[in-house]
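Protein modeling request. Please complete all fields; requests missing the sequence field cannot be processed.
Requester role: graduate student
Desired output: 3D structure, token encoding
Chains: 1
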Amino acid sequence: MISKGCEQCAKGGKMVLFVYGYCDQRDCFYCPLGENRKNVTDVYANERKVESDEDVIEEAKRMSALGTSITGGEPQEAMAKTTRYLELLKDEFGEDHHTHLYTGITGGRENMRRLSEAGLDEIRFHPPVELWGDMHGTEWEEILYIAREEGLTPAFEIPGIRAEPEFLEFLDEGAAEFCNINEFEMSDGNYRRMQEEGFELQEGHMSAVEGSKDDAILEEMASHEKVYFCTSVFKDAAQHRNRLKRMAKNIRREFDEVTDDGTLVYGKAFADADRFEALGVPEEFYTVKSDHVEVAWWLLEEMVEDGDLAEGEIVEQYPTVDGTVVERTPVA
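Delivered output (332 residues):
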């Protein structure tokens, strides 16, 4: 890994803070934002909708965040939110909490200074695709040097649409510190427009676009020592899964089992809590809810098999704040 932010992301230690859903200056056909994120003013910390500053801190603690990746829209409202959250995170977790910002605009010196003073460590620029190959002598070159002068680490983060040697030139010239190339992906938010542009999914893949790993990108760019190619498989298998594991470890109850995928597994019984007490079940193996009892899944199976309970179900769910259920398996 080239960047400290990438190292933390690979460990699942990077909280994703989405600050704003409007992009007044851009309308990228490949924008992956779905309906709940595009053209909204809502803030999300991972899957958590932020209602107060404390929500951001709670989400960071939920996953033992090592740092924060900030993304979102472009207007001045986004800058005000971003600087506030940067200051909040640094005040709570200290200077070791690494932060990076992903942005599709140059911003100018004043914004670079504000971000640096608020505690931003690293800024990753995503220039419009139509300007690729013609950025020297423009604001996109100038902002790299300005960001560095203001104490930030300047870099590029781009989708793997095609190989573009100009990014390597910026690296060799010392203007940018590194370049991250994300495997080109389709999502619910961009699927229709991507197809209109002639892109299709890779066969047997849920999101990767056909040709996003072609030889030109890998040979011309990803072989450079300051370029990192981030695959969709890596994002799912490492970044996302490791983040879930960090959460699960923090919030699991004594009877919850944490899977290799970072989900939580437990049993659910629709029985009176007195039944568990009468059977002498240790308190650490179950907890009473308003209309059911949650219990160690293996103990639920034993109790149903022995006739102590008529039925139940084994639940697998994400350790995220919304607790999305992955699977329910009846036990009878």
